[in-house]
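Hi team,

Below is the intake form for 3'-5' exonuclease from Actinotalea fermentans. Please confirm the fields before the structure is written into the shared record.

FORM ID: S-0412
PROTEIN: 3'-5' exonuclease
ORGANISM: Actinotalea fermentans
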Amino acid sequence: MAHPDSADTPPETPAPPVAAREAAQPPAEPTVIPLTEPADGVPDVVDTPEALAAVVAAFAAGHGPVAVDAERASGYRYGQRTYLVQLRREGAGTAIIDPVALPDLSALSAALRGVEWVLHAASQDLPGLAEQGLVADEVFDTELAARLLGMERVGLAAVVADVLGLGLAKEHSAVDWSTRPLPRDWLRYAALDVELLVQVRDVLAGRLAEAGKAEWARQEFAAVRDAPPAPPRVEPWRRTSGLHAVRSTRGLAVVRALWEARDADARARDISPGRVLPDAALVAAGLALPRSVAELTELKAFSGRATKRRAAFWFAAVQRGLEVPDAALPSPRGPRTDGPPPPRAWADRDPAAAARLAAAREILHGLSEGLRVPVENLLQPDLLRRLCWSPPDPVTTESVAAALTAGGARPWQVDLAAAPLAQAFVTVH
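The structure came back. Fields below:
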């Protein structure tokens, strides 16, 4: 047997230099310090006219931007009503307001005339705040800013960690904010949501300016602020999860009847429709087409104790769907719209349009990578599809720019996209 030190033993591979070893390691995660308490403590909930008057005076006397957030009870209550409003401003501190007890907050809105509001995902909160009389003159949206800067994660906690190195707990993000009284831990969470927003805004504003994107952000924030209320959905029952499994028009009629019964019941009881009856139950009935209460309750989705108690109510809806005249059955294709068909059908229906869409998507993908802006923020997907399906005639940079502007694109988007899209359309022809 050869000695371990003999020449027959392969030499040991020398260890790489320290610098090389460090370079081979994945970059260390930045240290994030948990933020557990608001700087000024958790304020009492403002739920009386006297307390609101004091808040109005304090925020009117404050200075700088105001951080604003709102909490809803999605998944618990019907609709998107606001159940808590949080604000923080330098010189005024933090206020947590109960809009159920104080539905008219227009006095606070008046006190903040001309003040920039800082929100995260403003499009989610502004409609509900407007119902309370809170309307912003100027908006800075930290989520939109993060998107324009190409940040990989744009949730509030992720942005705060990236920008400030601080950690926000999100364990109460999906609780029932209609609960009264609200637990102290929930109020702490609510206060922390506005604790750092203005600091985050300042850092992001600086980054936007350095990246040459400050004007883009200004236009995007104005568009969010000025967005009109969303129109009512056409045939909203078609958004039932799993509806694609229901192939027959009779089955669709049953789903529609059940959806309408559930919606009316949920609205009357102020309960989220999904808590009244899950979408899976609607789809199951649309597939099975039960002809009696007994057949309905044999379905697993209707076999629960609470659902069985209301089986007659649900079967009455099923029966309405079963009795719809053939001429009134819902179309399997959905309602007619003024928009183009689904892109998957373009190759057969209009190959030139399909080619334009493919070319346009490639252009936007290239711009997205080069500018570090998500494709959907460069141009609204629905607007792009409409433009590719029905381009202007003749196709020029000017005509494409006009079509984009008419469709709601912001000037910075038009400046970036009009010329390359026009060139691509001409080339495709």
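SUMMARY LINE: Residues 349 and 366 are 27 Å apart (CA to CA).

Thanks, M.
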